[in-house]
Task: inverse folding
């Protein structure tokens, strides 16, 4: 049976001004809904790209209570779409180290589940550009898969893409659509973004949906853009360049079973964790 999903990816240059970011996101969401999107995925840090370390603590929200969570719920309900909310800072049990949490809301505005980014971006990208995400963010500990309208989704965020064992969990749970909202840097994006997205799609025979931040932010950080969706055979379904915009992709989910029947790679595994 043919099963399709029209999904919209939001590509933004988020700033340190939450109201401006939400207005930009709302405009792109409206555009995607008018084009027929049933689901919308926002990028990592969509509501706030910190201008200085610790700024996110000024806008910290508690789980189930806060203006950005309210905005996501209201937006999902207003547009009658599944909304995947990139990440926002949510209070943990450790002071000054909130979770980077991705919320998922149904078309009724009800929270379906949430995922806390597991892998922290503690790297030196190039001379003069380094990151220590674990210094001000608490890592999550569990994969999160969920079902919506008989479609199985798996959650991940940005740096998670470099750790295939997370996606093996989703493959074992028959996930059809891997979500990967990101804020991939310009330097690493040029060499690894498309490669990683295609690898995760091909090895798990699933669609990968990855909206990214783009351009130069007001903290002078540069992100790569090129939001894209990749199909289970590694083909790019749709891709943006560097502009702030929306990307609508139609996923033919029946393609997954068709490939698995002809190419049953998962039945050939020899080494199990």
Result:
């Amino acid at each position: 049976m043919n099963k399709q999903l029209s999904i919209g990816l939001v590509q933004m240059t988020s700033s340190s001004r939450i109201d401006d970011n939400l207005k930009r996101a709302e405009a792109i969401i409206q555009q995607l809904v008018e084009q027929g999107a049933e689901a919308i995925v926002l990028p990592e840090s969509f509501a706030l790209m910190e201008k200085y370390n610790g700024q996110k603590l000024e806008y910290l929200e508690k789980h189930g209570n806060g203006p950005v969570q309210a905005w996501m719920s209201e937006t999902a309900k207003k547009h009658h779409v599944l909304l995947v909310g990139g990440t926002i800072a949510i209070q943990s049990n450790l002071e000054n180290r909130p979770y980077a949490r991705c919320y998922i809301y149904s078309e009724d505005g009800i929270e379906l589940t949430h995922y806390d980014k597991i892998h922290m971006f503690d790297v030196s990208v190039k001379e003069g550009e380094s990151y220590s995400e674990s210094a001000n963010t608490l890592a999550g500990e569990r994969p999160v898969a969920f079902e919506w309208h008989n479609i199985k989704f798996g959650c991940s965020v940005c740096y998670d893409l470099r750790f295939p064992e997370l996606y093996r969990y989703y493959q074992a749970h028959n996930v059809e659509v891997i979500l990967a909202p990101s804020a991939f840097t310009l330097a690493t994006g040029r060499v690894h973004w498309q490669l990683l997205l295609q690898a995760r799609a091909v090895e798990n025979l699933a669609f990968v949906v990855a909206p990214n931040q783009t351009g130069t932010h007001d903290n002078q950080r540069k992100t790569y853009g090129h939001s894209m969706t990749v199909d289970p055979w590694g083909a790019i379904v749709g891709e943006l360049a560097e502009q702030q915009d929306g990307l609508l992709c139609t996923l033919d989910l029946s393609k997954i079973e068709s490939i698995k029947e002809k190419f049953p790679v998962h039945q050939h595994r020899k080494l199990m964790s």
About this structure: The longest helix spans residues 186-204. The two ends are 33 Å apart (CA to CA). Helices lie at 18-34, 67-79, 164-172, 186-204, 254-262.
